[in-house]
Specification:
The chain is built from twelve helices and eleven strands. The chain has about 425 residues and is an alpha/beta fold. It has two domains: about 270 residues, 3-Layer(aba) Sandwich (Rossmann fold); about 100 residues, Dihydrodipicolinate Reductase, domain 2, CATH 3.30.360. The strands form two sheets. Strands 3-2-1-4-5-6-11 form a seven-stranded parallel sheet, with helices on both faces. The chain has a four-stranded mixed sheet with strand order 8-7-9-10. Helix 6 links the parallel strand 4 and strand 5. It is globular and about 70 Å long. The two termini are about 35 Å apart.
């Protein structure tokens, strides 16, 4: 069966309202997601950058963009319409778009609940998770939603101190307790924390992540297999990132930057088949705002030891790169949940630096797996994916996406108790200016 524009369903698959609960719901990425979805739905702009709006996904029976309902958690109180105006002033959103989709932005803003803990909030982890999950169930119930997908788009968090559960893990646990699939678009811990890993495996819910692949690492996942396939020896690969916004400030923290860089370097190891010299530096340049520049310097050897260099420059708007992928992931994960799938959605590794589950590391092979997955979403089959879909070639170097979530024991404050209902979790760290 074919889907009409914006992924709307056929008569045999009536429209179902799907919630998208954004952790960091008033940040740059989240605001662009809401404004962009409204703009595409209204026909004001094409769905550029949305893989799920290409012909290969027309039969996947995904939720229509018009049937997505947005909400979320955040610790800041700047309303989405005002946030959108600021993004338009910075060139992130087109001029006039905030006014054109004001109603949709305002509706989403009414569904945003306070994150936490804020200063003076003395609730323990269990109480925070319970409160976040209650917000999600309420969102689903009031809006008459069939399901909701939780997507973490908050700024990268530093490592938690004193053994405390990190914010992203509290929100991920809340999503599971509310019966919601979870997607981690950030390098923050989320379900990777040992306390949450087994809970995720037992939840019966699908999940995906981590750390969206939108810029420098996207390019690395293409170039790495190229060197491997051409038998060119990479001697060193170094990179530098300049960025501003909230995530630029967050990544000024060495621990947060280390979490971010680990994913970038892992892609190289997986696609090249070995670790190489070189590091990635991240510099906070507030004047850049939501724009970023990434340089890579690649030293490699050719035939008879001839030494050569490749240098690349990537300049982009982070929110405009990330937002269409967030919409893709919400729709694909919602459809997987509708089909009763559970566990890591390894076929979504195409979107991530550090994917959960097992799968290829090169972008071409990842896209082939994604297309196979889309076909099963359309047919309802959940068994082995069809063979022989290898157009576009493959990547050398293999190396899955980091394996399944690390297992771990330990129950903190009853957080691993199962929850009922269908909702989503909330983000405790700030929201503005996410960098991927």
């Amino acid at each position: 069966m074919s889907a009409s524009p914006s992924g709307s369903r056929t008569a045999s698959h009536p429209a179902a309202r799907t919630g998208v609960w954004l952790i960091g719901a008033r940040g740059s990425v989240a605001t662009t997601v809401v404004a962009g979805c409204a703009a595409v739905t209204a026909g004001l702009h094409p769905a550029t950058g949305m893989v799920t709006e290409t012909p290969d996904f027309a039969d996947a029976v995904l939720p229509a963009l018009a049937d997505l309902v947005f909400g979320g958690h955040d610790t800041v109180d700047c309303p989405l319409p005002k946030r959108a105006e600021a993004l338009a002033a910075g060139g992130v959103l087109p001029p006039g778009l905030p006014a054109a989709v004001h109603a949709e932005l305002a509706a989403a803003d009414r569904e945003i609940r306070p994150g936490g803990p804020l200063p003076g909030d003395h609730r323990d982890d269990a109480a925070l998770v319970a409160a976040f999950a209650a917000d999600l169930r309420d969102f689903v119930r009031r809006n008459g939603l069939d399901r909701a997908v939780v997507v973490n788009v908050a700024s990268t968090e530093p490592a938690a101190a004193d053994g405390a559960l990190p914010p992203s893990t509290l929100y991920a646990l809340a999503a599971l307790d509310a019966g919601c699939p979870y997607v981690n678009f950030t390098p923050s811990a989320g379900l990777h924390h040992p306390v949450a890993a087994r809970r995720a495996e037992r939840s019966g819910l699908p999940y995906a992540g981590r750390d969206g692949k939108t810029g420098q690492t996207l390019l690395r996942s293409v170039l790495g297999p190229m060197f491997a396939q051409r038998a060119l020896a990479v001697r060193a690969w170094s990179g530098t990132n300049l960025l501003g916004g909230g995530d630029g400030a967050a990544l000024a923290d060495p621990q947060a930057a280390a979490a971010k860089n680990a994913g970038k370097e892992r892609v190289l190891t997986d696609t090249l088949g070995t670790a190489v010299e070189g590091t990635v530096h991240i510099d906070d340049v507030p004047a850049l705002g939501d724009w970023k520049t990434a340089w890579d310097h690649i030293a490699f050897d050719g035939f008879l030891g001839a030494r050569m260099i490749l240098q690349t420059t990537w300049q982009g708007c982070d929110s405009a790169l990330a937002a269409p992928l967030v919409l893709d992931l919400a729709r694909l994960t919602a459809r997987a949940h509708e089909q009763g799938r559970s566990g890591p959605l390894s076929a979504l590794g195409f979107y991530f630096k550090d994917p959960v589950g097992e799968g290829p590391a090169g972008l071409t092979e990842q896209y082939t797996e994604l297309r196979r997955f889309a076909r099963t979403l359309g047919t309802g089959e959940t068994g082995p994916e069809p063979e022989g879909d290898t157009e576009g070639g493959g990547s050398a170097g293999g190396g899955g996406g980091g394996g399944a979530l690390g297992s771990g024991d330990g129950v903190r404050g009853g957080l691993l108790g199962s929850g009922e209902g269908g909702g989503a979790g909330r983000g405790r760290d700030g929201a503005a200016g996410e960098e991927r």
